[in-house]
Amino acid sequence: MLPLLLAAQPVATDSYLPALPAIARELGSASTSLTLFVLAFGFAQLLCGPLADRFGRRPVLLAGLACYAIAALGGAFAGSAGVLAGWRTLQGFPMAAILVCARAAVRDLYPAHEGPHVMARGLTGLGAVGLVAPLLGAWLVQGAGWRWVMVAMAVYASLLLAMCWRSFGETHKPLPQGAGAEASSAPRGSTRVVFASRSFRAWASLAAATYGGLFCFLLLSPMVYIGYLGWSPAMYGWIPAGGSLVYIFSTTMCRTLLRRYGPVRAVRLGASLSMAGALVQALGCWLMPLSAVPLLVGHAVYCLGHGIHQPCGQAGAVGDLPHLAGRAVSWSGFGMMMVAFCVGQTAALFVDADYSRGAWPMVVPMLAAGAVLLAIAFAWLPRLQHPKHP
Predict the structure, then answer these.
(1) CA separation (Å) from 102 to 108, 204, 241, 366?
(2) Which residue in 34, 104, 271, 346 has the fewest CB atoms around it within 10 Å?
């Protein structure tokens, strides 16, 4: 069930990417709805984490799936860009509930040292859904129109809601009601406890950095490939699908690396791959500005690194905080979304109607992410293993 819950995010984003140009033609704006979705998703995690710790994973998860389906249907009937952006914003809130509960349940059920392995298996399944989502989205856009992409999201959430209603048991013991100061003191001090963890800060930063680079691809690649290079939506749909195929392989490889070398050495390899992929894209922009080949190769190599970073970063961020797993997950997810939003909005400012800067607005943030990942992997994470004593 974990892969299907985690995959609710690529269903809401990857299947939506091929629809962006069609939405822009019909409603006049498209990227705003995606960025507001990410922004709402980020902020809502700060609410969903404490709720999941307080009342349990199951009720928060079921409510999130129901609201996700309703918001997707509302977006399917949107008559303007503003209304679509509003429904997508509302969809971001239940999206947060789904992912927070799924990730927190992993920490509830497994000890810290098994968390990265379990998360890697879940993200492998996520990659499988991510492989199909953009292809289905492109097919629906060309065959029936972009609104059916939103309908497909609602159907997915509805089926998942029925499955979880029957099979998802509570994994966390809720805080007792009316337990007085002892119960209420934990929420007040929880944020301070989460950020006091050196492990949380390092691993959450790793997850945020790698996702920030990938989000710039998610946001700007339709404009680069469809607008700048002139590809059709159906052809473009194979690009995120191919990235998902690489991601499946990478998360599988991550499990082997974790067994043999441990998380820090695995992340060092991932950071090197992320930087190498961004460099290949940059060289392509410089030497072959109208060729898609270096962009595709570089994206594939970056995804290899991303598939190593995400299981390690997401599981590592909550490894030392089993009693505050919901809050740790929410703050880690909030950091990922805020970095993605800020970097993506900044990069989008450099995209004009004539695409005069080519693919550089998409590539430069990935270069920056690669540099940050190298710094975290080779300078920060080793200090967690060998702390300095006064």
Answers:
(1) 10, 17, 23, 28
(2) 346
Q: What is the pLDDT of residues 121-158, one digit of tens each?
A: 888 888 888 788 888 888 898 888 889 999 999 999 99
Question: What's the pTM?
Answer: 0.78
Sign of torsion over alpha carbons 217, 131, 257, 108 = positive
| Cα–Cα distance, 54 to 47 (Å, whole number) | 11
CA nearest to 223, candidates 38, 365, 21 = 21
The secondary structure element, H or E, covering residue 357 is: none
pLDDT digits over 204-226, tens only? 999 999 999 998 988 899 889 98
Q: Report yes or no: 116 and 316 within 8 Å, Cβ to Cβ.
A: yes
What confidence tens digit (pLDDT) does each residue in 28-81 have? 777 778 778 878 888 899 999 888 888 889 999 999 999 999 999 999 998 888
**Residue 286: left (phi > 0), alpha (psi -120 to 50), or beta?**
alpha
Q: Where are the alpha helices (DSSP H) in the chain?
A: 2-6, 8-13, 20-27, 31-55, 57-76, 81-109, 115-143, 147-167, 181-196, 198-222, 233-261, 263-287, 293-318, 325-348, 360-375, 381-385
3-state SS, residue 15: coil
Tokens 């690396």 label which residue? 257
Angle CA 137–33–328, to nearest 5: 95
Comparing C-alpha atoms, which of 167, 16, 19 is closest to residue 91? 16
Question: Residue 341 burial by CB count (10 A; 0-12/13-18/19+): exposed, middle or buried?
Answer: buried
Residue with tokens 């691993």: 203
Amino acid in the structure at residue 270: G
Are the CB atoms for 340 and 38 separated by under 8 Å? yes
Q: Could you give the angle at the alpha carbon of 146 between the alpha carbons of 145 and 147, nearest 5°?
A: 95
CATH number given to 2-168+184-383? 1.20.1250.20
The CA distance from 132 to 130, in Å, is 5
